[in-house]
Amino acid sequence: MCGIMGYVGPQQAGPILIDGLKRLEYRGYDSAGIAVSNGDIRVMKAQGKIANLEALVDGDQPTGNVGIGHTRWATHGAPTDANAHPHTDPSGEFVVVHNGIIENFQDIKTELAELGAEFASDTDTELLAHLVAREYDGDLVEAVRRTVALSEGAYAMVVMSTREPETIVAVRKISPLVVGLGDGETYLASDIPAVLHHTRDFLIIEDDEMVIVTSEGATVETIDGDSVERDAIHIDWDAGQAEKGGYEHFMLKEIHEQPDVITETLGGRISEDGSVWLEDVAFDDAYIAGLDRVWITACGTAFHAGLIGQEIFRRVLRLPANVEYAHELRYADPIIGPRELMIAISQSGETADTLAAARVAPDHGSRMLAITNVVGSTLSRYADDVLYTRAGPEISVASTKAYMAMLIAQYLLALRLGAARGTVNEQQAQAVAHGLHRLPAAIEEVLGNEDEAIAAAAAITDADDVYFIGRGLDYAIAMEGSLKLKEISYLHSEAMPAGELKHGTLALITEGVPVVVILTQRDVYDKTISAIQEVKARGGRILAVAYDTDEEIDTYADLVMRIPDMDDLLAPVAAVVPLQLLAYHVARLRGHDIDQPRNLAKSVTVE
Ligand code: G6P
Question: Residue 245: what pLDDT?
């Protein structure tokens, strides 16, 4: 997973490429580079963040109006200057950037080496440059086409050459690629926000397509050479949405955007009486009534959103519901029937494992519904039905507002399905609708209690380990709270069902060990209190997330983070917020790079 940029037009390409790469830095940031052509190609690249590349070109800008750029997240070869993209063939006439993995890398390398090739890097990308050069016989498009035929895997690649200096040729095989159409200038990028400040008109390149880019626009073809008619789409997003808006970090900004995200995601989809209308969900009541099971598949934070969905669908629909990690499901040979609905959840809509698992559904003749934040993403295009989350661009690698929107989307879906199956009556639907509409105000209230999370952060920042426990929906929230803490504070933490603690992990609870307990599910409240007592008896410290009406918890907890009292079914939406803030403030106290945590990337488009 890396970020790709390209530019052809009247302006100097260098600054445009670097600016775009900065906006794509969330996709990878262990090295970056650009190649700019003015007839001759100049490549400049640097290990580390894009600031290093900027320092390198400062005062020594490469000149030229055509260029390609890349920000890398290493898969083949260490993050060094030599392994940074772009890569050239030995003559320096063909230059390539690439996102993804060439699976037959070793075979190609051996073959080229046997023919006497020498390599300047350890990357699979460099091999592509060698291949394009070898295959070139006067037509760059054909050389790229033949290179693609030789290269197995899921990737996007972008090629530029001194032989055809006004053209960039790009290919998409799974990894995302868009073309931004300007006035006498054309952009290429891994995603729309990277060039949204230049243009609002885009061509989305599909799998197994090539695009030939010049300053006059772009021509799309299939990899087999058939021409493709592709209409441009116009994007209405506010580019300012992608800026920090006064907060110290994107993560904090995005946490604070959550009330608006709820409003947006609900907007126009649910009435006061609880009837739900989902614009891109095409299935009808008869299909819903015939459903036997709901599957959910996702990775990371989206999987944790699926844990909540699983519980909601079981309770609201009285249907079996299973959430499965996408990387497990894709190889699990699952038994899925045609009367079973697959829900794939992915903020980016580009996570390779989720895309693969989602495709298991159609193989079994069942329908696939995507819950995703990115309009036009690969997942949305694979899906039979799409429920967009409307969280807006999420920049922080640690996901917050997108997770929140995934929860809201699932409540809407549960109401829609429940109404058609007759498991939700009018009164219940109305009560849930009322609760959903009150959530933005409730979340504002939780954000107003940020001091409690700051105090809790100070209490655990020096800990070696933190445990998160809860039951049912609270357990699902414990999972997400623990992940957030790990991702950005690098503090070891584990989440488990409260009842599981005594079956092993209790051995690790000694004097002062912090245990975060989530207590929003009234039917199991007393059971969770028992787990708290087990912790207290060993000297552990209790940090609780509880309703503001819960006085009992004061007896047990060292610190309480409060949320407003509400329907237990909706409580996860509020309960996750103090845990997001807790993770944020621990990471801040520890002085970490919060928006770009080490070793992680926003969008994992390789397996
Ligand atoms: C990466 C990100 C996580 C994210 C996961 C799934 O691991 O670092 O924050 O939850 O991918 O991403 P998706 O775009 O599919 O929701």
Answer: 58
